[in-house]
């Protein structure tokens, strides 16, 4: 593999062997490592992307989970006093997230995660 060759060449320049050890302890040898390891670099499959252009440097480049929930037509929100707020209303959920509680448990988790990051 080409990537492995690069690592072996770099190590060889410093007189390091990635396959042979100077000791006889098998457990510390890199060739003895077992198990599945996550690849450092992975070629994406079914990758989608889009080019974003913006002029406002303070505008966020991506929506947070809370922004997505707020834009969702199916999100029914309830304020802490129990009154219902539809997502189509003018209430900005991201500005009033302490007052609005999503009725969907998954949405509630996203709101709590968003609040903990603030």
Automatic annotation (TrEMBL):
Highest taxon, organism lineage: Eukaryota
**Which residue intervals make up region (Disordered)?**
79-118
Mind listing the GO biological process terms from this record? Answer: pseudouridine synthesis
- Cite the GO molecular-function annotations of the record: pseudouridine synthase activity; RNA binding
Q: Which InterPro entries match?
A: PsdUridine_synth_TruD, TruD_catalytic
GO CC terms for this protein? nucleus
| Polar residues bias (residue ranges) | 79-94
Q: What is this protein called?
A: Uncharacterized protein
